[in-house]
Design goal:
By secondary structure, the chain is mainly α.
Length: 195
């Protein structure tokens, strides 16, 4: 039989097998279509061992083989859910993202509160200044064409705190202020005592 005809038979068999698995998983059939799955597996193994007539046939076969493997993973996962007494697909990742089943309790967030937020929910004045400085710093870097993808405010703020601690010995007890400056074609933070 020519490859084109073989591939049509394979595609039709995969479509039929998928329909039979859906019938089994969702209630209108009591037994999984194991025998048909064995036949499709045998057909794929046989075709994999033969040389395709054309590159297009080989590509079409690879596509069908990939689709079949994906369906096998889906069938096995849904069947294990059904065997565990769950409704197939509801507990898996086929639910739309962000949608929880109506009977589940919402989980608490897995992240701690942001360091920039006080327990009462108010942002401190120092934090607000640091955030403005961060935005100014990022904008200046962007204007010079630098990549700012690796920057985030939390690390920037930690770095500022570390620099403030180091500079307190140099400036004494005065509060340290930072500003953004361009020097030698690079954006830098410049420290000075406040006032």
């Amino acid at each position: 039989m020519p490859w084109e005809r073989e591939l049509e038979v394979l595609e039709s068999s995969i479509r039929s097998l998928n329909a039979q698995y859906d019938a089994f998983l969702y209630g209108s059939s009591s037994k999984p279509p194991v025998e048909i799955r064995r036949r499709v597996n045998a057909m794929i193994r046989r075709l994999a061992g033969q040389e395709a007539d054309t590159a297009a046939d080989r590509f079409r076969f690879s596509t069908l083989q990939g689709r079949y493997n994906t369906l096998c993973e889906r069938w096995d996962r849904l069947q294990s859910e059904k065997e565990a007494g769950k409704r197939p697909g509801v507990y898996g990742h086929f639910m739309p993202s962000g949608v929880a089943p109506a009977f589940s309790r919402p989980e608490p967030p897995n992240a701690r509160p942001a360091a920039s937020v006080e327990p009462d929910g108010e942002t401190t004045a120092a934090n607000a200044r640091d955030r403005v400085l961060y935005q100014k710093y990022i904008e200046a870097k962007k204007n010079l064409g630098e990549d700012v993808g690796g920057y985030d405010f939390a690390r920037f703020e930690e770095s500022l705190q570390s620099q403030r601690e180091k500079l307190r010995g140099h400036f004494g007890s005065a509060e340290i202020e930072f500003d953004v400056a361009e020097r030698d074609g690079k954006i830098r933070l410049v420290a000075r005592p406040k006032g």
